[in-house]
Amino acid sequence: MTGNLAMVKSEAPRRGSIAPLKNVMTLMMLIETLKDRGVGLPGIGVFSGDSGYGKSVAAQYAMNKTGAVYIEVRHYWRQKRFCEALLEELGQPRPRGTVAAMMDEIIHRMGDAPNRPLIIDEADKLVDGKMIEFVRDIHETTQAPVVLIGEELLPKKLEAHERVHNRVLDFRLAQPCDLEDTVTLAGFLVPEVAIAEELLNDIRKQTAGKARRIATTLHEIGQFARNHGLKDLDRTSYTGRIFTGETPIRRRGGRI
User: Fold this and answer.
1) How many helices and strands (H and E) does the chain possess?
2) Structural domain of 219
3) For the chain, what is the domain count?
4) Are residues 131 and 187 in the same domain?
5) Could you report the per-residue pLDDT of 19-44, keeping only the tens digit for each?
6) pTM value surpassing 0.90
């Protein structure tokens, strides 16, 4: 077979581990910046970018590495549910009480470990639900590092909340996967298949560099290779799907 093959490991990664992509490292550097900030500097960081760039996966990695408190905000949450969820992550089972009482307990518990980061995923929903000031109160009182993770427009949304925006020390943008990230994912997710670099670059381009779509395509490649008894693939030999995010259209004759 011709073509430049991406080098992959022969052994599969440990189950549950996370590929060390550039966005993972960007988030880790942001957390270290917040933890090591000088006296008097604000300690809120923002990590934002398009859906599918792997921000939530990076957050899971950071939580495991730093021992951070991590919550993912849901669309239907209101003030009380936000407080309950955060208290549950802080180790209080079945939290009860008023919003004010629960906020006092959150501040007390986080104040006991002021260098422990708080990572809030889907933080856009806190802004939309008029709960973002809760984050400022927690940070101001405990001085704990706080990372807000959200979509591309999160920094712009925060501008409407000046008291929160003024306390952001650093903004970092999640980036689409480049070829190096794509090669890393291939070696991580399908280490048993040698994939030509040209094919990996095609996948990166057609998926717009979105880690989730690349990972789904690589899973498809693994299935394709097993079904056809192949150990290496290039643009010619791979005839399976690439998950671009486009909606399938039924063609004439009933075929998709």
Assistant:
1) 11, 7
2) 177-233
3) 2
4) no
5) 789 999 999 999 999 999 999 999 99
6) no
